Amino acid sequence: RLAWQPRPDETAQRAERERTEAARGRWIVAIAILVTTISIANSMLMSVTERFREIGTMKCLGAPAAFIRQIFFLESALLGVVGGVAGAVLGGVASVIGYAATYGPGPVFAGMAWGTLCAHLTAAGALSVVLAVTAAVYPAAVAARMRPSDALRSSV
After folding, report:
1. 31 vs 46, 55, 65, 126, 155, CA distance in Å?
2. Which of 14, 49, 65, 113 has its CA 20 to 30 A from that of 21?
3. 24-72 pLDDT, tens per residue?
């Protein structure tokens, strides 16, 4: 038992401050996820625009709308996998560096919660794939609804 004990009001203030900081962190994460999803959707819409004639040619050759959607979902899933792996690697390295800067280089490998870190990085990677595929729903629908005659007639 410590000789010094915090007053109950200090403990309550600290708990309230921690709750406020956690809520602020959740808002930052939510905004980052929203921005990421919109950016991926924009990227996929640009891909649809750039491949306008290609999509029209595939539709003229008999490609069903489901096939066109699958192409864009696969492309976005691959984008999510690459982004998720890159983000997980960078996040893991940043975590190790931050832990080493805080506690010193010696206890990094002994004291770090590697299981928790790996679980968080895996969840982040999976979330990136889910967000990428979710962001591709509208662009894939636009590509699938495209009329072949409009696509072949355009000069895009």
Report:
1. 22, 33, 33, 18, 37
2. 113
3. 999 999 999 999 899 999 999 999 999 888 998 999 899 999 999 999 9
